[in-house]
Structure formats: C-alpha cells, structure tokens
Amino acid sequence: MAAKQLIKDHFIELRIFQHRSIVAIVFTIVLFGILAARLFYLQITNHDHFTTLSQNNRVSVQAIPPTRGLIYDRNGIILAENLPSYTLQIIPEQTKDIDNLIEELATLIEIRDVDIKKFKKEVKRKRRFEGIPLRFRLTDKEVAIISVNLHHLPGVEIQAQLTRYYPYGRETSHVVGYVGRINEKELKTLPVTNYSGTNHTGKLGIEKSYEALLHGQVGYQKVETNVRGRVLRVLERSNPTPGDDLYLNLDINLQKVAAEAFEGKRGALVAIDPQNGHILAMLSMPDYNANLFVNGIDSKTYKALNTSWERPLYNRTLLGSYPPGSTTKPFFALAGLELNVIAPDHEIFCPGYYQLKGKSHKYRDWKKWGHGKTDITKSIVESCDVFYYDLAFQLGIDHMHEFMSNFGFGQHSGIDILGERSGLMPSREWKKRVHNQVWFPGETVIAGIGQGYVLVTPLQLALATATLANGGKLYQPQLVHSIKRKSDPIPRLVTPQLVREIKVNRPSNWKKVYHAMTEVIHGRRGTARRLNKPDMRYKIAGKTSTAQVFTVAQDASYKEEELEERLKDHALFMAFAPVDNPRITIAVVVENGGHGGSVAAPIAGKVIEAYLSQFNDEELKAAQKKQKPSAKKKPSAHKKPIRNKAKPSIQQTHNNTALFLNGPEYQRHKNLIQAHRVKENAHG
Amino acid sequence: MASRSSQQGLFFRMHIDLTLLLALLALIAAGQVILYSAGGENIALMQRQWIRLGVAFAVMLAIAQISPDTMRRWSPVLFIFGTIMLIAVLLVGTKALGARRWLDLGLFRFQPSEMMKLAVPMMIAWFLSAGNIPPSNRRIFAALAILIVPVLLIAKQPDLGTSLLVSSAGLFVIFMSGVSWRLILGFVIAVISFTMPMWLFLMRDYQRQRVLTMLNPESDPLDSGYHIIQSKIAIGSGGSFGKGWLNGTQSHLEFLPEHHTDFIFSVFAEEFGFSGVLILLALYMFIIFRGIYITTQAHGTYARLLGASVVLTFLIYIFVNIGMVSGILPVVGVPLPLVSYGGTSIVTLMAGFGILMAIHTHRKLLAH
Q1: Cα–Cα distance, A644 to A650 (Å, whole number)
Q2: What local confidence, expressed as pLDDT, does residue A561 receive?
Q3: Which chain A residue shows the shortest CA-CA distance from B254?
Q4: By CB neighbour count within 10 A (0-12 exposed, 13-18 middle, 19+ buried), where does B274 fall?
Q5: Closest CA to B62 of B277, B367, B353
Q6: What end-to-end distance do the CA atoms of chain B give, in Å?
Q7: Is the ipTM reported for this complex over the cut 0.95?
Q8: DSSP assignment of A429-482, as one string?
Q9: Is the CB of A227 less than 8 angstroms away from the CB of B322?
Q10: Which pLDDT tens digit goes with each residue over A311-332?
C-alpha cells in the first residue's frame, strides 16, 4: 500500500478532483432547479387549485334546519306543534371512565341494558368529541334530576330537539296527517339543499300537501374544522327561515264532537261552510294516533293498523266511494224542475214498483206497498224511489250527468290536500270509454235513486249539498284558512275559490227542494224527524239515504259475521242549517250502519248543534231578510254572494292575499296537488 | 489569507469557518421561526430543540479541532465499531414504530445508523485515498463491497431514508475519486438490467403494487397518499407570498401529518410562499457552494473526498426531503436538514460541518 502511495500523481489527482467538483456544482444546480421548478408548479401555476382544496379541507358547511310551521284550527287551537324532547348524551372525550359514569347515571334515572348496548356500538362508530345519545325522550323529572347532578357528571349533556306533536292526534289524523322520517323515495323528489338538515317531511294530509310552506328555508353556517372534524369556530352564519304557520278552517271542537258521535262506528263526516267552501270538520273513522308515526312506528303496531279490516288508515272522506242512494233525490228533483221536465205540481202514483215500457222487470220501491199519490215534496220527505225511477227515465242519463256534474258529482273537488278520489257520475260516453258497452235504459232508472254506477265521496256529498244550499255556487273546498309567514304581522287569507255558479232558472224551484228537505226533519213523516226538537232555534234541511252495498270484494279471508256486517246497507245523511241562512252543510256516511235516518242523521244533528250554538239568534237569521228580495229577482240573474259571515280580522288580511298566492312556495303546493290529480286520472 | 481580518483570523485559529458558521446560523434561525409555527407555538418543544442544537454546536466545534489526518487514521476503527453496533441493533435493539433502530444504553439511546452517515464516507475515503487516484476497478469494487454491508444492515432495520443517505455518502466518495464515466454508465445499466427482469418476471402483483404505491402515493389516497396530498395542498395553497407566519391552515388544523418533523418544509412553503421558499433554497445553495469551495481548497485526498461527500450528502438531504414533500419522490423518512425537529440528525449534520471546518482550518498544518 505504501508503495502505491508513492507513485501518486498529485497534479492529475487535483485535476480530476476539480473536474468532479464542477460536475458536483452542476449537479447541485440541476437538483435545486428541479425543486424550484416543482415548487413553482405547485405554488404559482396551480395555486388556485390547491387553495380550493385547502378551503374545502378546513371549511365545511353545516345546514341548520328550519323550524317547521305550526298548524292551528280556526279558533287558534294548536293542532300540530314542535315540542322539545330531551336526549341524554355522553361525550367520550370529556369523560374518564365511561362505564363508571353510566353506572352512576343508572342510579339516577332508568337506563336499560338495550340503551347501553346501543350506546357502546355508537361509541365505536363516532368520533370522541361527538355527543353519543344514551337515553331518548327524557321526562321532565328525569331532566331535572340530571340537571341537578350535572356538575359531577363530566361529559354528560342534555340535548333538546324539537319533535312534532299532535295534541289531537286521533281526531286530526286524516286531515292534518303527520310527518315522518324522510324515506329514500322522498329523498329523490325533495329539494336537496333545502332539506339538507331536515329529517322529517309531511307524509299525509295538510302536513304533506303544504310541505312546501310548512318546511321553511334551510339556514347554514360555515365552520372551520380540523382534521378530525371538530368545529373550531363559526365563520359565517345564515339563519334558517322558519316554515309558515297554517290556520285551518277546521274547528277542532266540532271535530271532537263528530268523533264522539261516531264512536264505535265506521264512516266519514265532512262539514263545509256553504258560503265559502271552508271545511269545518272532516273526520274518517276509525281513526288512529298520528303521533305514532312521527319517530317511526314499530312494525307490530303498523301491521295491526294496516291489516285491520276496519282500515283505520284509510281516509274515507277523500277515498271512500259510496253509492249516494237517496241523497241524490233533492238534486234530481231540482234537475227535473229546472230543466222543465216536470212541473212544480208534478205528481205520480207509486204502486211500489216501476216498469219500463215493454219490459217485465220491476224496479222495486223500498216501501213494498208503495207511497200512493206522490208529489215532489213527498218524494223527498218519504224518499219515494218510484218517483225518481220515472223522473230519471224522463231526464235521460245525459241530462242527469250534466246536471249532477255541475254540483261536483264525479269530479275532483279541488280540495287543498292530496289524494281525493273523483267518485263517479256515469254517462253514455263514460260507459263506452271504460266498459266499451252501450248504455241501457235500466241503468238510467237505478241511477235515478243514486245506485248503480253512481259513487260519491263524503267530501263530494258535502260539497254538493253546500252548492245546493247556497243557491248554486260551487266553492273549492278549502282546509287552510290563512297562512302566517313569520315575517308578516298578520296571516294572509287564502281567498275562497268560486269554481262555478250554476244557472238558476227559477229560484222557486230551489225553494221547493229546500222546503221538501226541511220537511225531512221537521215534517210529521220525515225520515229524519228524530232530529226535530221543539225548542230549536233554527231549521235543518236534509236527506237520508240507506244505500245498498252491491258488492263485497270476493275475499275469502273475511270472517262469516264480518261478511254479514259488511253486507249491511250504508247509512247516509246530508243536511244544511239553518235553512234560511245556511252556515253549515254536512254529509255523513256510516258504513254498514243500516238506516240513514236513525244512524247517520243523529251524528249530523250533534255536529250541527255544536256548530250553530256559537251563533246568536240574530246571526242565525240575519240574512233571511236580505235573501228574500234576491230570490224574487229575475230567474236568469246570477246571485251575488249575499251572505257574508267574514270576520273583521279576515277582511283586514284580505288585501295581502293576492301577492302571496303567487309566491313560489304556494305555486309548488299547487303544482303538487295538480300533479297528483293528473297521476290519479291516468290511473283511473 | 493575508487579506483576512484579525477577527476572522481569530475564528480561523479556533478552527471555525466564519462564512459557513454565519450561513448555518441563518439557516437555523429560519428553522426556529418555522418550527415555532409548525410545532404549534410550543415553547417546551422549542427548548428541547435548543438543547439539541447546543449539543450539535458543541460536537461541531469539537470535531473542527481534530485534524483530518487524525480522522483518517481513526476511520477504520470508527467504521468497524459502527458496523458491530449495527449488528447489535438488529439483535438487541429497541423497537419503535415498527423499526429497530436504537441501542438502549441505559443513560441514553444511541442510533448507530446516524454515526454511519459519517463513518461510511470516512472509511471509503480512507480506503481510496490509500491507493491511486483515479482508483483501479478492483479498488472501486472493494469500496462498493465496504459500502454495501452497512447499507444493507440499515435497510434491514428498516430505515430506508438513512440507508439511502449512507449509500449516497459512500457513492459520492467513489464518484469524487474520479471513477470513470464508463464505469458509472455500466453501473447504471447493471442496476436497470437487474431490476427490470425482477420487476417483470420475479415479482408478484401485490409486490409490484406495493412498489407502485411507494412511487406514486396518490394512488392510495387514504394511506400513504394522504400525507402527500395534504402536503401538496399546503405547499400549493401558499402561493407567491404565503398565508403568513402562524397562519398556515393545513398545519395548524392538523391536516398535514408530521408537520414539525419530516413535513416542516410544507409548513414553511404554506406560510411564506414561493418567495420564502426561494430564499430558503438560496441559503441552502450557499452552504453547499461554500462546502464545495472548502473541499477544492482542501489538502490531501482523504480530506477532499470526505469533504465533498459531506457536502453532497447534505444536498441529497435537501433534495430528497423537498422532493418527497412536494410529491416528486417517494416518501422516505428524511428530515429537512437543520430545520426539522429531531435530535440525532442535527448532531450528525453539524458533525459533518465540523469536519468541513476542520478540513478548512487545518490546512496550514498539513502544508508544513
């Protein structure tokens, strides 16, 4: 080694080294150049891109759900409210020994093993600074106990949320409906942004149909979070706009009276103010408790409700299609008079049956031996079928269809909640279209007593009665009276919508029918004379019906006695009162109730009584004097709305209405109803 | 020499290169500023770093007093001692974070691989300086054989970053010794022809995948890729002038991992932007050029080879760290020299600068 060292050439060595040093310098410059170029690319060229990513990293937007609008009845009694419900949470990060803490909590309030199990599962899933619920729906007492002890329970928190609550959950179940957790299907149709913080949406009734108004506008806050998602500070906040409050035309006291009167029966009741189409009561029985659905109903209860043969979930007021039976008689009588088919003093002889010329088939009257000589009044009071067999034959199905359609038979009423059926008022055209068959004269005859193809929903029957009572004005039935936006000082009224005004040829024709209907209650032989009491402050006009149930679904699962029950006649009753100044019209259907006069009429009587008791004698008669001159006007004259019961406060709000009704949310509500209707038409 | 002031003369007599010292102090000052931010304004953390810096400066000054000739004579001893220690680490070392890197000596923990960053180039410089320059092919292969032993031992721990730095330190010595370009080319071709068939025929799919993920971490955004993505966001969002000191959101909101150790450059880039980055790079470049200047002035083969290796290894530190955090190199654990928080590497680096100072200031003695 030493020998080799001796022959070292220092000059060559130094040259080599200097050469390599230059290479090293170049190498250094190249590497630094690469780094500088890379950093230039990241920091200058792509700066915007990375700035965005950095923002997305740290800033997250949290939705703040709006408070759902409240629902009141016509007197300001709350029907749907948001109640705080308390949840006990534990934040793992702030506790030392979770098991110990739970043990301690268990000595204070009830904590079930299921709760602990669920909690432990959540602990593994969630982040340590997030509150994890241990107990839901604490009672006030439990909240108090925990609050007092909170100081030595580190990491324990009581969280308050708002939960929808229906104080009259049973009585209003079909009308107000309920909210429930948003399901997958709804997730696709609801506006994504606006529902980003919302868990519940309206499922039925007002809650569903007015979802767009009740929900409100979502708020948000921009927060800065660290890598674990913990919120460090709020950067920006935009408060949510609460949903609008709704005031219904519904009178909850009336609804309660109706429900009580209906106890133990199946059926439906609809009461309408004939002066504006306001729905005063709307009941489908049996009912159910809407509160069960708010936070998810358990499957056992749901199954029981859904499979019960009494079908409590079925809204009979909108969906129940019943043969109207004799309740059509006043309308057909009016048709005969107005179309000049029969004279006011028209009379027939009723032998107890009717025969078409050249046919042997006998159309029976309910009274085997017949009513004898029968005029229009008697035909209504005693409900003579033969009179209407004959009248129907003379009118012909086309005229019947046209006339009855004016009263809303066979048509959607346009009520402001979803899901109504149209009922059916048959015609030649309809039979051709649907059954591809010609119309037989015999079918006209039975249509004359509201049987056969004729079907009506309780809502339609009430609406037709209201149209009859008010002299031919068909108002769109309306559940919502006014809408109170949080920013508005007073609610905005939803204007009554006059759909059509039926041409009155001779007011005396109408009076004649009213008179006959009054006799049904107050006459000696009236079918609903049990409603007549000696000290009544007002007179009721009405018509009973005992409608035959023609078919029962051929479902083998019906029990014997059930089947028997289901083959019984439906009891129907329609009425309005006071006769001279109608303030309420009502339609009652009691499924398989038997006789209309004895079963359906008393229910209506109670509701009428309850409603009219709030008016003094003056109010009940007030319009009487005004009405008479107008009735004497020329027959062709269109009546102006003369009975005005509007309260001063409503008048006051009236001016604001037009503006509001064009708002986008209201339009969405309208569209929803419209879309549903189109869909339904396509189905049926 | 004659033009130097008496002040510099004083430093020179203390075996300190003032230019290098000032540049290092500037760099360390910048490092302290960014460490304060990256460490979450933690004074206790800063104090621990100051102790390390104190020790490192002491080591640097101490080593600067040793003449290169003495170093050369002790090189084989140091190397053999280090290699034995590496074997000991593999046998009885303390395990931490899945790697066996430390020897627990009771009083303190010792990381032999750090020592090898200097012991290996010293050994190879000793070996090559004993023979002809440029060395014969046989001596070069012998030098490579010396190099491969500690590199494999360190890679086995596993410590990819250190084994990379140790091997480049050794290779730089061989390179500076004047190995022919033909041989370098042959070496590169050999490496490629060895890895290509291995890649194509010998490796299984999952192994290939693992290598690919290492080379392109973004293909695995949840695991190792996450670090690089967050680091690039930090650097890129810094822009021209940065978000300002203590205002880096990526690091302060903890999106950036290891933000006061290996990824501290990303914090710097986020808070001071491209302009700050250029100043930092310029400072590093100045130190490297000063180091190369020192080696070209050095007396003796050993001193030249060792000095150049120390400087170029410092360059590799910088390039690998910044290349790694900016996403052009795979993630290997290499700190940003003199800036990253952490003990042993700072001591080793300053020891290296001590060697450079020794090389520079012991020249007259050698000349005589």
Answers
A1: 12
A2: 61
A3: A227
A4: buried
A5: B353
A6: 16
A7: no
A8: HHHHHHH--PPPHHHHHHHTTT-TT-BB-HHHHHHHHHHHHTTSEEEPPBSEEE
A9: no
A10: 899 999 999 899 999 999 999 9
Task: Sheet containing A231-238: give its strands across.
Answer: A59-64, A219-225, A231-238
* Residue A644: predicted pLDDT: 39
Q: Per-residue confidence at B230, pLDDT binned at 50, 70, 90?
A: confident
- The amino acid present at A3, given as its one-letter code, is A
C-alpha neighbours within 13 Å on the C-beta side of residue A59: 13
Q: Residue A220: its pLDDT value, please?
A: 85
Domains of chain A, each with CATH number or no CATH: 62-248 (3.90.1310.10), 252-683 (3.40.710.10)
Residue A405, SS3?
Answer: helix
Q: What residues are paired with A347 via a beta bridge?
A: A375
Per-residue pLDDT at A584 exceeds 90: yes
Residue A188 has a CB neighbour count (10 Å cut-off) of 8
The domain total for chain B is 1
C-alpha dihedral sign at A271, A273, A277, A280: negative
Structure tokens at A238: 């935009």
User: Token pair for residue A673?
Assistant: 């109803």
Listed by number, the residues of chain A in 161-200 with a beta carbon closer than 8 Å to a beta carbon of chain B are none
What pLDDT does B91 receive? 85
Q: B80: domain range?
A: 6-367
Domain annotation covers residue B1: no
* Range with lowest mean pLDDT among A120-134, A474-488, B196-210: B196-210
Q: Report if residue B147 sits inside a domain.
A: yes
> How many Cβ atoms sit within 10 Å of the Cβ of residue A644?
11
Per-residue pLDDT, A647: 37
Q: Which residue of A has its CA nearest to B230?
A: A54
In this predicted structure, the answer to whether residue A302 has a pLDDT above a threshold of 70 is: yes
**pLDDT tens per residue across span B83-97:** 999 998 888 877 776
Q: Shortest Cα distance from B56 to chain A (angstroms)?
A: 25
Strand pairing category for A245-248 and A71-72:
parallel
pLDDT at A80: 93
Which amino acid is it at A362? Answer: K
Is B289 inside any structural domain? yes
Is residue B141 over pLDDT 50? yes
Instruction: Please give the mean pLDDT across all residues of chain A.
Output: 83
- Compute CA A153 distance to the chain's CA centroid, rounded to the nearest angstrom: 45
Please name the member of A18, A24, A50 whose beta carbon is closest to the beta carbon of B312: A24
Active-site option among A173, A209, A326, A422: A326
| Gap between the Cα atoms of A483 and A679, Å rounded | 27
Place of tokens 């008393």: A602
Note the pLDDT tens digit of each residue in B105-139: 766 667 888 899 999 999 999 999 888 878 888 99
Cα R_g (chain B), whole angstroms: 21
Contact A607, A261 (CB under 8 A): yes
Residue bearing the bigger pLDDT, A59 or A352: A352
B325/B264 Cα distance (integer angstroms): 9
User: How far does A36 lie from chain B, in Å, by closest CA?
Assistant: 7
Report the distance separating Cα A598 and Cα A528, nearest Å: 7
Question: Residue A272 has which token pair?
Answer: 């309408």
**Residue A50 C-alpha from the chain's centroid:** 50
Helix (H, G, I), strand (E, B) or coil at B356: helix
The confidence score (pLDDT) of residue A668 equals 60
- The answer to whether A18 faces chain B, any CB pair under 8 Å, is yes
Residue A231, helix vs strand vs coil: strand
Within a domain: residue B112? yes
Q: Residue A549 corresponds to which tokens in the numbers above?
A: 């149930």
Q: Cβ separation of B255 and A8 shorter than 8 Å?
A: no
The answer, for A434 touching chain B at a CB cutoff of 8 Å, is: no
Q: What is the pLDDT of residues A627-650, one digit of tens each?
A: 443 433 333 334 333 333 333 333
Local confidence band at B356 (pLDDT 50, 70, 90 cut-offs): very high
Q: Would you give the distance in Å from CA A537 to the centre of its chain?
A: 35
